Hints:
Number of domains of chain A: 2
Strand content of chain A: 25-35%
Order of helices and strands of chain A: EEEEHEHHHEEEHHHHEEHEE
Oligomer: homodimer
Structural class of chain A: alpha+beta
Low-confidence stretches of chain A: none
Shape of chain A: globular
Number of strands of chain A: 12
Distance between the termini of chain A: 18 Å
Radius of gyration of chain A: 20 Å
CATH architecture of the largest domain in chain A: 2-Layer Sandwich
Mean pLDDT of chain A: 94
Amino acid sequence: MVSKSYKASAPGSLMLFGEHAVLHGKHAIVAAVNHYIHVELVPRADRNIKITSSEFNEQLVALDKFAITKPYNYVLVAIKQYLKKITCGFDLKIKSDFPANIGFGSSAAVTVATLEVLALWLEGKSPDLMGLYRQAVKVVLLAHGVGSGADVAASVFGGVIAYQMKPVKIQRLNVKLPLVAVYSGYKTPTFEVIAKVEKERSRSPALFACLYNAIDCCVKNAIVAIKKNDLVRLGQLMNIHQGLQDALSVNDSILAELIFALRAMPNIYGAKISGAGLGDCVIGLGKIALNTFPQNNAQKKLGIKQIDVAVSRVGFTYVW
Amino acid sequence: MVSKSYKASAPGSLMLFGEHAVLHGKHAIVAAVNHYIHVELVPRADRNIKITSSEFNEQLVALDKFAITKPYNYVLVAIKQYLKKITCGFDLKIKSDFPANIGFGSSAAVTVATLEVLALWLEGKSPDLMGLYRQAVKVVLLAHGVGSGADVAASVFGGVIAYQMKPVKIQRLNVKLPLVAVYSGYKTPTFEVIAKVEKERSRSPALFACLYNAIDCCVKNAIVAIKKNDLVRLGQLMNIHQGLQDALSVNDSILAELIFALRAMPNIYGAKISGAGLGDCVIGLGKIALNTFPQNNAQKKLGIKQIDVAVSRVGFTYVW
């Protein structure tokens, strides 16, 4: 007998606007991208959970000695939400279109897809989108301790989203933004960057309140620009936003070099860091030829690479 | 018979904090530097004004056909203030310790020193400091159309000054700041940079109000740090301020490269653009060895050079 299998996919995401400030209730813009994480669940006859993935080593967890360990902590915390309903083991096969270290929100995507296959299997139905979003945010916070949920919203709903964390505001912006992503060759863990910024914020609360207000104003202008499809304006706002990220001390010489290189290109409207900063990707608004980056051997040596990326119009999808 | 001669000197200056925002009534910090402009006035028997300088070609202006022309427009506007009292020609010899294009506020310094020799000659006394400041600001605005007067204040009063334009607030901060200045190899005229920023401000008044508030908050924190002689904190605030200047779109790849290079040095607390931006100097807080810049042949080719600089404790001085 072939066991029934449950499949779900969720897109990764890129933060376009509002990094750091979003954690303090300010607006953000996040885009789902056309790089997906696919999760397949197949029930087993025994009481073991076997997790395999294209990214990390296989892991076997006994249902009766359930514990949450890295690197599958997001997946395991998601499973824990359903633990009481789980009556047998299962194979969980994770396939990712993109590496976990490039700032495409893989944790959010794998969480969303895992919760989805569990719901399909155990509840016989897909949760509503807001339910899935709330559940995934809870998992990410339990596994990570901190997070805005913006990447979760993108993974669930797809497209370009105007986002606010508290109170939750999720608005799909019906738009096709041309995007370029360039990976800087390294990443500082998001929680470390957030901790660094929060530490400086605690030293200068009034100044950081001003910076976050400026970011919020920038994001609100960007939402208007997106609705008008005004890419020139949107690019300018990205550049202004980048200065504010620099003011938060999450910029560095490599990111700055990539950003100025992008801005110097004729079809690029603006460029900035995507995400918490101190590594990961920079994004440009516009289109450039494939393999424009790395631009030279020095960049190649640093591991800088261009990632072909487009906005994904769909959020998670599933086969039941 | 040897004609009596009147001599005055005024220091150049570096903007440390508050660029652009100062034009909108926000706080700034400016430092007089140990590079001076020296002006000597010797009355002539005829009715000609002969201006000579270490920077530009000699110019002869007939007292009876007085007109204001470049490159001596600041000097000539200063002379115009006294035109009714001038009964004979004179030689005006200008000697500058530094080139006019390195963003050391040469226009303010030459204006202050010229007004001073004219006052000594024609009124038989030196004007009081506030009188000299107000007169020089008037001249700079007439010649230039725009300006904060911060550089004028530094040239008149010397030292490190907390400054506000409207209402005028000039506070000497009794401090010895270690400074490094690196010339980027090029300069965009200040009025052009201001016009560019003002144009963008007019498109996004609310956003720019946020940016200027953040700059103001940064400057006020910096004044506190200076009073406490807390160089670590002051350096951090310089870095934050730099991000805000980047947000004003007055940063570029060369300035960013120099700033990140300075920040990577062990004795540098922070670094930023000095002045309007898009060229001129970057400054670092701290000390580095002479000739650290240019760091390589590429920088040398661009005309990048390190300028030995220290805060000048004195403002203008004169020999009567």
